[in-house]
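Holo prediction — D-mannose.
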Amino acid sequence: MKMILRWFPFGDDSVTLEQIRQIPGVSGVAACLPEVPVGEVWPLETLTGLKEEIGGAGLEMEVIESVNIHEDIKKGLPSRDRYIENYIKTMDNLGAVGVKCLCYNFMPVIDWARSSLAFPLEDGSTALSYRHSEVLEMNPVKIAGVMDSKAVGYSLPGWEPERMGAMAGDMEFYQKMSPDEYWNNMKYFLDAVIPAAVKNDIRMAIHPDDPPWQLYGLPKVIGNAENIRRFLKLNDSPYNGLTLCTGSLGASLDNDIPAIAREFSSAGRVPFAHIRNLHHHSPKDFDESAHLSRCGDLDMFEVVRGFYEGGFDGYIRPDHGRMIWGEKARPGYGLYDRALGSQYLLGLWEALGKLLGR
Ligand code: DNO
């Protein structure tokens, strides 16, 4: 298992590589190139430079997060082949710089949704929060504006400006698409890219839908164990895997997160885990809490035990953190609370190792 943190290059992050290097037990970062428009090839020279920068700080760049999928692929349009070709070229470039895991998602139009990016918690910290009725009241175009205005000057992953222009039309397009058609489009993509994943030794890791329930009539696909099983069967290669995000899946109280972690880790299909906790006010209203079990609804010992006993040997990131100690940073991605979360998760991992042996 390797503990990493998400990091945004080219000055688009308040957190520095030097700071990340000083968090005990953190060996690398999940990097990205948000400035490359969706559908374009991630240039080898830029990736090489990025790897050198990260390596120069004593960290690894084995995970890349959010090589976003062009909407035409999700829609199944004839132009998808061109975008898939570009995706494969990007994978070849990632393979050339030693990337081992690629986290992506197949959510239509919007990546993740929250009603607040700085909801005040009782202890004076702030966190991302979700109130179902508020999210429903905002149409997706409005929510995009809200997300942007609250991002305190940082780009928000998944809310790239180029997507926003086409949003209204995309929304309409999906209203007419059947869930099976959407699944077929996913299979078409997987069957095309998995051979490139095998060739480059890059494990593909799809991120679950966040939240894991339907919004605005859009197809939602990866939200529970049954859908994950169906997804993994679409292409049975071990290179077709999952980013097991405990916060996204855990938003639904119907999901048994320790069991999900155990089942899919045992099957060898979890190259990457995002591990965080949530506190629910009702089944569809929650705040992103501190990582500790007592701060949220997930029993983090049992969650981590599920991964451990399932033989998980991928990458973990503490996912999001609250904003604490007056930090000013990209919502969810400050230094302090993620560093605390990483130490807690590493502590649980060490204890499990000593108790259970490995
Ligand atoms: C949100 C992130 C997601 C994730 C993408 C991967 O906090 O976990 O934006 O990076 O879904 O493409």
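READOUT: The chain has one domain: 2-356.
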